[in-house]
Amino acid sequence: MNKEMIENFIDYLCENEKCQNTIIKYQRDLYVFLEFLNERSLEKKIVREYKNFLMKKYAPRSVNSMLTALNSFFDYIERRDLKVKVLRIQKKIFINENKNLTKNEYKRLLHAAHDDVRLQLIMETLCSTGMRVSELQYITVENYKSGEIEVFNKGKERTIFLSKKLIQKMKIYIQQKKIKKGKIFVTKTGKPMDRISIWRCMKQLCQKAQVQSSKVFPHNLRRLFARSYYSLKKDLSKLADLLGHTSIETTRIYIMEDSKKHYRDIEDMNLII
Question: In this structure, are 184 and 231 located in the same domain?
Fold first, then answer.
């Protein structure tokens, strides 16, 4: 195994139109294995040693994602005999309360961002639509008024809906910033706002908003949308469509509550005399 084999595999993934984030991660994970291999020949014994190495260093889900990348590579080079099993992980039924952003905390973040109109509107857009950060670029001066934004992500096309109130706020923002055409949410140089930039800006709000830093990151706004929608409609299948999920099991993760909610529920059952 060498760098050339890895790059050929990456080219293969690109040709098959795999998700860009997946390609980048597979490439990074395979180079970790290559370093571990250290010019030794490919053997099942070494792959097992690598699995044990990962288990000591990473969380189970990270181990599985790295093994998945490696197993895919072994499929590509037709060495399926080298593939190893991923770890069995029990499904979580509760989310860590230190990562569960509440609606009140979200509103405090919005108030804390009142001096940064762009950031405030980005957070409102992400949270009220459930869209991914990478999909913000599809909102343009030309299409936002329709209230229906067509996005293409992870090999799928779907429609994202904007509320009338959000459209009005976008209209005011566009007028204030004198944006004539193209993407609405861009940097000073005209590039689309990316996840890292938004993440950094949001983290700066934590102290002022008095919200734990562990709860404040762009993807948590998408999760808050999911929990809010499910609480209102109780329609998991429709929610999966809105979020662009292929599997409802993925959507279930988004609507998990923390354990405090479960404690309240069992108290309300009133089954102890």
Answer: yes
Q: What is the CATH number of the domain that holds 14?
A: 1.10.150.130
Least Cα distance to 53 among 75, 74, 38, 39 occurs for 38
- End position of a domain, from candidates 28, 48, 82: 82
Q: What share of the chain is helix, strand, coil (3-state, %, to 5)?
A: 60, 5, 30
Q: Give the predicted TM-score (pTM) of the model.
A: 0.69
Helices (H), 132-247: 164-177, 195-203, 206-209, 218-233, 236-243
Domain span at residue 36 reads 3-82
Same-domain status, 129 and 159: yes
The alpha carbon of residue 138 and the mean position of all alpha carbons in its chain are separated, in whole angstroms, by: 17
- In the chain, the amino acid numbered 23 is I
DSSP letter at 183 equals B
For residues 70 and 153, membership in a common domain is answered with: no
Distance, in Å, from the CA atom of 3 to the CA atom of 31, rounded to the nearest integer, reads 8
The tokens of 264 are what?
């309240």
Residues 29 and 124 in one domain: no
Structural Rg of the chain based on CA atoms: 22
Q: What is the pLDDT of residues 106-129, one digit of tens each?
A: 999 999 999 999 999 999 999 999
Determine the pLDDT at residue 70.
Answer: 95
